[in-house]
Amino acid sequence: MSKATYVLSAVLAVVSVAGGAAALLVPVTATAQQQVGPAVGKYLKAAQDAIKKKNWNGALAAIKQAQDVSTKTAFEQYKINELLWYVYLQQGRNLDAARLLEQQMGSGQMPAGEKVQRTKTLAQLYFRGDSYAKAIQFANQYLKSVPGDQDMRLLIAQAYYQQKDYKNAIAAAERMTAGGKRPSEDVLQLMLRSSYEISDSAGTAKALDLLLKYYPSKDTWQRVLDGYIAQTKHDDELLALYRLAEDVGALTKARQYTDMSQGLVVAGFAIEGERVIQQGLSSGVFQGEELSRAQRTLQAATRRADVQRQQLPKADAMLAAAKTGTQLYDVGKLYFSAGDYAKAAPVLAQAVAKGGLEDADRVQMLYGISLSRQGKNAEADKAFAAVKEPKFAEVAKLWIIKGS
Question: Is the model's pTM score more than 0.90?
Fold first, then answer.
């Protein structure tokens, strides 16, 4: 899952400079009865002017000059640091900004009324800087003052996820789904991915049910499947996911069409692979180099598909001669690749019953898909439910949800 981008607020306010009429633009309101003296103020004014022009290096140079003033007060140092962490923020130096802001909060100079909001900003900065433990620490601290902030609760869950602490990520996300309120899709996606990572079948089923309960759309399917496809390395699982994406209308990316087609050809489904890449080309999804790649993929698929088409007239004889589960599976694959699911399904069922297969789950999944593509959802659900390997079973559950 990608990290959420959080908007950080650094509201600029005007404070006076002792001994002059100029004004300094700094990220906070000045503490009453304290002022920035002219020795420091002239450099901060120069930093302010550079900030207005988004000249961050110029601002840093002016801030360095202010830091070099030997007679600074604690308040002046605080104001220098306020500009400095703001510039760090604008440069994308999130950890530097976070560390300095944390120092500011402990300086004794920050107005009490600003500390709560600054704690939220600090959590966000640490998250963006990939310092997830610190992000969790300050987000929890902030929530003691503002317990209803859902953005911070989501940040905590995402921070746990980024640390691969999936159990705590799930626990944090589930707290956001309590009470019967409609949870955000981001929360449910996080629950789904975390449950999948630890092979938590019940948790995955719960997250999927909630996703398709609250966000039942083609877009939801696409989000769910994109997440699975991005994380799945097993070839058979990947093909099952691609086939599901095709069936629910979530196969939309050029690279998915070519990857699916190539994967099908390699796995022995050349006719299906040819059909998929032709479908992608007809959709107009390919442009530029991707189009050239797709055309090469089609040529390769067609060569292999032609070989399979020559085998089709012999399929019935091959079936009659089949004596092992593997031989039955090979015939079932041929029918499936050709799109003849009515013939493929009973042959694949025979292969499963015969046994002796290298990977029974692979055949069981293909059997379920062949039933699903005939609209026999009740039978397909039984076939999918028989898939045993935990992560492959999670993919099978997606097919069950599709048919429900």
Answer: no
